[in-house]
Amino acid sequence: MPQVSTTKPSNRSVHIPKKIIVLGKILQSISTSLAAQYAAKIFITPFPYPTPKRELEMQQKSRQKFVKLRAYHKTICVYEYGQSEKKILLVHGWSGRGTQLFKIADALLKQGYMTVSFDAPAHGQSPGKTTMMPHFIAACLELSEQYGGFHAAVGHSLGGMSLLNAAGKGLQVNKLVVIGTGDSITEISREFIENLGLKDVIATKMKAYFDRNHKQDLDDLSASVAAKYVNIPVLVVHDKDDKDVHVHCAKQIDANLIHSELLITEKLGHRQILGNKDVIEKIITFVNKKTEL
Question: What pTM value is reported for the model?
Answer without folding.
Answer: 0.93
